[in-house]
Amino acid sequence: MVYRVEQLYFNIVSYGAVNGGGDCSGAVNAAIAAAVAAGGGAVWVPAGLWRLEHQVVLLSGVSLQGGGNGWQYVAGTPLGAGSVFDVEWGNNGAGSSNDHNQAAILVQSTTTIDHIGFDYKSQSGNSNPPVEYGATIMCYDTAHGGVNLNITNNAFNRAYVAIDCRGSNQGLGVGGVTIADNMGCPAFFLKINWVVDWVNIRDNTSNGGLCSSSPTIGMSSWVASNGIVYWIGHQDDMTIQHAQAAGYGTGVSVDYTTSEYSGDGRLLLVDSEFDATQYGVVYADNSASTSLGIVNLSVVNCHFAPFNNATQASGAAILIQNSTKVGTLSLTGNDIYNYSTATAAYFLYASQTTISLGNVIITGNSSKGNAQTVPPLQFGAPLITSLICTGNAWTGYSSTISTYNAAFSSVSGNTHN
Predict the structure, then answer these.
(1) What is the H or E stretch that residue 218 is in?
(2) Antiparallel, parallel or unpaired: β 83-87 and 62-66
(3) What is the gyration radius of the CA atoms in the chain, in angstroms?
(4) pTM exceeds cut of 0.90
(5) What would the pLDDT profile of 124-138 be if each residue is shown by its tens digit?
(6) Beta pairing, strands 383-390 & 83-87
(7) Which of 120, 274, 311, 346 could lock 316 by a disulfide, CB 3.0 to 4.6 Å apart?
(8) What CA–CA distance (Å, rounded) separates 214 from 76?
(9) CA dist list (Å): 305 to 66, 129, 148, 312, 325
(10) pLDDT at position 262, please?
(11) CA dist., res. 280 & res. 297, Å (int)
């Protein structure tokens, strides 16, 4: 005999939430408490507009489930139909986005947030810089950074930080996390650190140009220069796939700015698109440490358009800078489109003397768009252990590669025009 256990649902309306009414955070937290008392379940958020003025704490074993995702994205306007939280919480100025007490939804491990829209109506599209609200969703568990989390099919309209998966910033692990099929126009889509186990990041869409009525003004203008889609710290192994983003300063930033970030391990970016994003992938050591580095950075079958919507400036698809160490850098099957007529768009820029590069493999990449006066591959002084550069087709460039300093090299079969 097979027994089927039905999931218990706890409708926030039953606990006092009113569609289009006042603060419903108390009702949501009460529904979560009831679910915990029942041994787990789903807190149901029906289609409607639900105001949040205080923090919601999503406890282990409980999911937050929306009743629809009929969001209408029009530049500079609120979300349309669907299950939407109107977030009026976590605006305490500079530093709010890093403070777990200011997060709109604070999640423990073994939780799910699905089909919920988060709208920041008080965040004016004309704001430059935008107001630093607390993170919309923050993974923060005192026992560990956060495990068994699912954040899927949600929308973030003019959030400052959509998702923060840095745990409690105590070096506690993050693992078993799925962040998939989300969309929106936050200033920062995901900040993640201390990844010690499997993390699935896929099919997320971010467009900084939708923050304002025009991509050249207000919040959109700020995001075009300063916004980051994926801000990554320490990771053992991480894959980002099928990402789509436009209108950001940086697509993927692997950063060593402070002790809260200490990037290493392996990072794979595959089948993704970063359009009108000034820097596609930035790998930088800003910690003044000489012992940090990444084992393997691989970028495969991705599209880049290194361009700043607000300033009309060029950039680079891949930027390696400061004192960064890279064991293996593999760039395969990617393409770059040069919108800008500023004639200084690079596919790879890695010329600082403090960079340490091991095995560099650049094969089957291509370009098109406006003509450039710089080479697609800019190296210069850094010592490269091994350089393999073959079968690349650089349209719009007057050369295929700059001077380089490699102990071993195989550079052949590359074209330009």
Answers:
(1) helix 218-226
(2) unpaired
(3) 22
(4) yes
(5) 888 899 999 999 999
(6) unpaired
(7) 346
(8) 8
(9) 35, 24, 35, 12, 25
(10) 44
(11) 13
Confidence category of residue 324, pLDDT binned at 50, 70, 90? confident
The closest of 336, 299, 397 to 415, measured between CA atoms, is 397
CB 309 within 8 A of CB 276: yes
From residue 394, give the alpha-carbon distance in Å to each of 2, 335, 385, 397, 413.
61, 9, 24, 6, 11
Least confident of 56-70, 89-103, 146-160, 213-227: 89-103
- The C-alpha atoms of residue 245 and residue 383 are separated, in whole angstroms, by 33
For the record, the structure tokens of 104 come out as: 């709109």
Q: How far apart are CA 82 and CA 153, in angstroms?
A: 12
- β-pairing verdict for 250-255 and 228-232: parallel
Quote the mean pLDDT of the chain: 86
CA distance 171 to 194: 6
CA atoms within 13 A on the CB side of 155: 23
CB 121 within 8 A of CB 159: no
Secondary structure (DSSP) of 114-162: ES-EEE-TTS-TT-SSPP-PPPSEEE-BTTBSEEEEEEES-EEES-SEE
Q: Would you list the DSSP string of 234-293?
A: -BSEEEEES-EEES-SEEEEEE-SSTT----SEEEEES-EEET-SEEEEEEE-S--SS--
Contact (CB, 8 A) for 224 and 254: no
267 neighbors 260 (Cβ within 8 angstroms): no
Q: For residues 174 and 194, is the Cβ–Cβ distance under 8 A?
A: yes
Judge contact between 368 and 397, C-beta under 8 A.
Answer: no
Q: How large is the average pLDDT for residues 219-241?
A: 89
Q: What is the mean pLDDT of residues 95-120?
A: 88
> Hey, which of 200-204, 264-268, 306-310 has the most confident mean pLDDT?
200-204
Report the DSSP pairing between strands 161-165 and 266-270.
Answer: unpaired
**180 CB-near residues (< 8 Å, 6+ apart):** 151, 152, 153, 200, 201, 202, 203, 204
Q: What confidence score (pLDDT) does residue 49 get?
A: 92
Q: What one-character DSSP code corresponds to residue 101?
A: G
Please name which of 384, 394, 395, 320 lies closest in space to residue 350, comparing C-alpha atoms: 320
Sign, CA dihedral 60-66-71-75, equals negative
- Residue 197 structure tokens: 């186990």
Please, are residues 204 and 191 in contact by the beta-carbon 8 Å criterion?
no
